[in-house]
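pls read this protein.

:::
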Amino acid sequence: MKVFLLILLALPVAAFSAEQTASLKEALPVSDEPAIEQRMVNLAEDLRCLVCQNESLAGSHAELAEDLRKEIREQMKAGKSDKEVIDYLTNRYGDFVLYRPPLKPVTYLLWFGPLLFLGIGGSIWYATLRRRRTMQSAEIDEQKLAVAAQLLEEKE
């Protein structure tokens, strides 16, 4: 009975993995020119998918990513350089499409924000430590200690 259940559970897994393998073979878009395809893949690794946002354009399976890769291939076949293709994409979609946006006034917070927040956090931490050093502990007299000890003994 256990063997039958194991076989029954293994069949969908085997079918799923066979289907995945077949779809992976079909999903590889290869250009008729390997040099253009390699250039496109190298360029697409440095570009962000506008739909997925945390995935490169080369690794995304979104329809828009496929359209953008097709557009990049067409521009490369037309003889445009990588810089011209990137300029076209940034003019159309903004600096968001780049994984490494340029250093300009609009992106200063993006580049220097982490250092700014680290500095603010460090300043708060330093001020807190200085305040603790200057604080004087309240003196406790013998009468208060005796009252506290008596309260503790009453609970036991």
